[in-house]
Amino acid sequence: MSVKKSLKWWQKLIGPKMTPSGWLSFFVLGLGQLRNKQKGKAVFFFVFELIYILIEILTSSLVSPGIPGQPKHWGYGFFRKSLHGFITLGEITGGKFRDNSPVLMIEGILAVFLLLVLAVIWLINIKDANETYINYRETGELQSTKEFYKQVFETSFAYIVSAPGLILMLFVTILPIVFSFLIAFTNWDAYHNPPADLIDWVGFSNFGNILKLPGWRSTFFGVAGWTVTWAFLSTFTTFFGGLFFAVIINNKRVVFKKIWRTILILPWAIPNMVSLLVFKNFLNQTYGPLNRMLGADIPWLNDATLAKITLLIVNFWLGVPYFMMLMTGILTSFDKTLYEAAKVDGASNAQSFWKITFPILLSQVTPLLIMSFASNFNNFGVVFFLTGGGPRNIAYEYADHTDILITWIYNMTKEYKVYNMASVMSILIFILIGSISVWNFLRSDAFKED
């Protein structure tokens, strides 16, 4: 960013010019407010800065000398030590004193978050001192601290109430996400495994390895291609399967509708894990009941192509009830006069379905289809509990024929401790599924109506 652009940004944020009060608050929080004779605000901003200073002092060797012989950087205050550890990811291995790289990374992220909060308060402090001074020079009136807090409470009540939740979310939700993201830029694997070893920053080399190294390249494109195919076919089949059963059951010629709905919803009521483990044994090539009944030796889960087809069939059995109930609810809310008017115009039942029912239905469920696609993209349970990713594929790195990206990531972390590449894959999944979902959502009628 150029100096000119930086100056424009500063003026837009703080104001057209810096006043004496603004400059005082620039160097010491609350000093400008004290000059403006607003003691309550001055105390608030100064105490906020003082807390940070005390944290740094009380956690340093100035107060706690530490253990004799410990590394110099262990005596730094919290913020200096955390930022130093974040940059270096540790300096000492073995012996009595040992750095733990992941802990240093987390502490560094925490320190950055806290400093960002301080930076926001610092900017608010400068802007407040500046505007109060300018307003006093123009009107001759000085807003009291009590009036200020009353105004803030009235105009920013929503922000005040939600602030604790937002701050909690910053540390409970955002921090783990950032930590997982940063692992992709390190060499954290089975050969550099903390706390026994230190890890180092390696930049974008892990991303480059996906394209440069033949094994990683073929595995990524193979697994990613199957993942997209799996997500699309799983969503497509369960959607149209659910629609088919909903239309059939809603037909006026069908009797005992409640009984049929109850039977068809049972697969959804049973926990998926239980169903999948039953199917895994039922489809076993050697002793499975299905092969014994057929008197055949069909490799339902041991042939690459057949295993993928089996996955889709089992997922169809599990997923259709959800879409069936969803479609049933939507179909019962349709305006019947549309069909009466279509019948008067001579439309057949098929024409009424494809020209009236399906377009209206699709416009209402498109957001849910996008969510279903995203869910199937990361449908860990079906693949893990039914095939375990198999059958074996010796050409892949830490993956097998039916592995999707999420199960591949599981293998890399749980079985092989390749955390850096697993993090890379997580980022690529986010980019891929986020792009597809946003693109589809923006094109949906539901978004256009909003």
From TrEMBL:
PROSITE patterns: ABC_TM1. It is a multi-pass membrane protein. GO terms for molecular function: ABC-type maltose transporter activity. InterPro entries: MetI-like (IPR000515), MetI-like_sf (IPR035906). The keyword Magnesium does not apply. The keyword Membrane applies. One of its GO terms (cellular component) is maltose transport complex. The chain crosses the membrane at residues 42-63, 103-124, 157-185, 223-247, 259-279, 309-332, 353-374, 418-442. It is found in: Cell membrane. Residues 224-440 form the ABC transmembrane type-1 domain. Keywords: Cell membrane, Membrane, Sugar transport, Transmembrane, Transmembrane helix, Transport. GO terms for biological process: maltodextrin transmembrane transport. Pfam families: BPD_transp_1. Belongs to the binding-protein-dependent transport system permease family. MalFG subfamily. Part of the ABC transporter complex MalEFGK involved in maltose/maltodextrin import. Probably responsible for the translocation of the substrate across the membrane. This is Maltose/maltodextrin transport system permease protein. It comes from Defluviitalea raffinosedens.
